[in-house]
TrEMBL record:
This is TraB/GumN family protein. It comes from Emticicia agri. Pfam families: DUF5694. Keywords: Signal. Residues 1-19 form the signal peptide.
Length: 287
């Protein structure tokens, strides 16, 4: 019994220290994936490396730097951390990535460049979670629960309709997507900062949440609407868990750079947390 009590005390110690030092501010910056992405629709910019666009990137980085985040979390899985550590080290030595998909990635364009501007000893921290599927093989499962989850996830994916069929079967979701894409096209003429301000507006974030997550339940596509929605929620809880595991009592401000479809869930979960204060990302960009 004493061992359990001691373990519980040690586990909760960081948050006990947080209670004494005030809340940690955390901002969630929703982004479009600037380079390659498996997303159904892509929001890349073909001229991202032009002098004009790079000046706009610098404008965004300068605005975010005023927030002075102690950690910069990005949408890549923890197993890729050594890779991005190396990218950051190379950037510090004025070496650009040779791979186009890395140089176009928002992790590089925003996260790495922001870390460099702030002179962070560590660049970015990877916190993404990829849904477990049976395809890579059960040898990747860490425990019995992970094995069962892999079976469940694989079986559920067999029931998932193509996205074309999903939108065709859900008129309200299809309309939300088409209206959003129409607005998105007008944002491409904006500077990257103004583009991100539009993307992170309350209307934009809630619409992304709807057609990415909760829209699956509208007509209960293939009879598994709630399961598809729950799977997306589960992914975001794992992302948040990865973030929390990296927080220390010494952190005062945190920035999460992640696809816009994740923002609503992550913000809602942390809004109820007694030791965190969610900061509106648009206020950072407007500074």
């Amino acid at each position: 019994m004493k061992k359990i009590t001691l373990f519980t005390f040690l586990l909760s110690l960081p948050f006990q220290l947080l209670a004494q030092s005030g809340k940690i501010q955390i901002a969630f910056l929703g982004v479009f994936h600037m380079g390659e992405t498996p997303d159904y629709k892509q929001g890349s910019l073909s001229d991202l490396l032009s002098a004009n666009r790079q000046a706009q990137i610098s404008e965004v980085v300068d605005a975010l730097a005023k927030f002075k985040p102690d950690k910069i979390f990005v949408e890549n899985t923890p197993d890729t951390q050594p890779f991005w550590d190396n990218v950051y080290k190379n950037y510090q030595n004025n070496l650009r990535p040779k791979e186009r998909n890395i140089e176009y990635n928002e992790i590089y364009q925003l996260g790495i460049k922001l870390a460099y501007k702030l002179n962070h000893p560590v660049g970015v921290t990877c916190v993404n979670y990829v849904q477990p599927e049976l395809v890579p093989g059960l040898k990747l499962a860490k425990n019995k629960l992970d094995t069962l989850l892999s079976f469940y996830s694989h079986e559920l994916e067999r029931k998932r309709p193509s996205y074309d069929n999903y939108f065709k079967a859900n008129p309200s979701v299809n309309k939300a997507l088409k209206d959003y894409l129409a607005r998105y096209e007008t944002w491409k003429d904006l500077s990257i900062k103004d583009h991100l301000i539009q993307l992170n507006s309350e209307e934009s974030i809630s619409t992304l949440h709807y057609f990415n997550i909760t829209g699956w339940m509208d007509t209960n596509t293939n009879g598994y609407g709630a399961e598809f929605t729950a799977k997306e929620y589960f992914r975001n809880t794992k992302i948040l868990q990865n973030i929390l595991l990296k927080v220390t009592p010494f952190d005062r401000k945190l920035l999460v750079i992640i696809g816009g479809g994740h923002i609503q869930v992550l913000r809602d979960m942390l809004k109820t947390h007694p030791y965190f204060e969610v900061v509106d990302a648009t206020t950072l960009l407007k500074q």
